[in-house]
Amino acid sequence: MKFAPSLQQLIDALRVLPGVGPKSAQRMAFTLLEDNHGASQLAQSIKQAQQTIQSCQTCQNYTQSAQCDICTDQTRSANGQICVVAQPQDVLSIEQTGHYHGRYFVLKGLLSPIDGIGPEELGLDKLQSQLQHGINELILATSPSVEGEATAFYLSEMAKQYNITVTRLAQGLPAGGELSALDSRTLGHAFSGRKQL
Amino acid sequence: MKFAPSLQQLIDALRVLPGVGPKSAQRMAFTLLEDNHGASQLAQSIKQAQQTIQSCQTCQNYTQSAQCDICTDQTRSANGQICVVAQPQDVLSIEQTGHYHGRYFVLKGLLSPIDGIGPEELGLDKLQSQLQHGINELILATSPSVEGEATAFYLSEMAKQYNITVTRLAQGLPAGGELSALDSRTLGHAFSGRKQL
């Protein structure tokens, strides 16, 4: 049995969403057909977001104006810190910790020469020009993956030219983690990074 | 930290999809912002489906023309069977079994007086008028829930006026089911519906 063409097209289009397989896409399509208002709202919100959301000129995070709220906040730039993250979502995660009150720089990717992603694609020239003005700490908050580490290394080399302190997020035991359930790399990092009490 | 207004609006709009919570909606919104083509495609597909998909005049299933493919297929109406299902998705499920070659009638709901869903809301008058012309079996394929059983009872009473055979899907052991894992109601139905070999 075949669905009506535009229903099938909707099912296919829903597959663009992360974590949505053929069955979920079908279920979503039927829900949208039943909920006319919600469906219109969704279609319109997608269009509006596409038209209004842009990259912040300073930090590359998503914003609706030329500069994002964090970059325009004077108190944020007062302490001269920039925290480098891979994706816009990571800004939210760090903000939720309440431990950081400086500015961010969102790479929207990680260095990966094999995929053709070099320093230009990540806007590192933009970051470099910012490092020359009143920055005293560059916090590297990329994930501890191969690409994340490579990007962190590149950035630390870049920052050294300007005598800027470069720090990297600590690696070790996750909160509430059972020692027996940890992989040996994490436990190894926790061991070598142990602190005196 | 707050998202840009139209990004937040997109996240909220995505919550209309079934099984999408706040976290998934965020992830989906970011994916859509990164995939401009896919996002446009999705917005357009929603609009197009809303504009072109309608209810089949005969069976109420979703279709792009006045009558759906199954209702226009002469071989489907030849055996004089109508299978009544609650939702359009159920048509697909039954088609996939390959056990049925008659027509359908899609209620798009079940009788539920407490929610104000009566026979008119389900289009049962439309079904009743069809029962008068060459139908010899009405197959009730609503689910074995309270509303499903109530709807099946109502339909069977209706069909009796026209001397039509009314059947209900068998209840019993699911394929591959372990006896020990079954609830007692299902096992009870399987017992009382046992067949001689």
From TrEMBL, chains A, B:
Toprim domain mapped to chain residues: 80-174
A biological-process GO annotation: DNA recombination
CDD domains registered for this protein in UniProt: TOPRIM_recR
C4-type zinc finger locations on the chain: 56-71
Protein keywords: DNA damage, DNA recombination, DNA repair, Isomerase, Metal-binding, Zinc, Zinc-finger
Entry-linked Gene3D superfamilies: 3.40.1360.10, RecR Domain 1
GO molecular function, one term: zinc ion binding
Any matching Pfam family: RecR_HhH
Family to which the UniProt record says this protein belongs: Belongs to the RecR family.
Function: May play a role in DNA repair. It seems to be involved in an RecBC-independent recombinational process of DNA repair. It may act with RecF and RecO.
NCBIfam families tied to this protein: recR (TIGR00615)
Protein name as it appears in the record: Recombination protein RecR
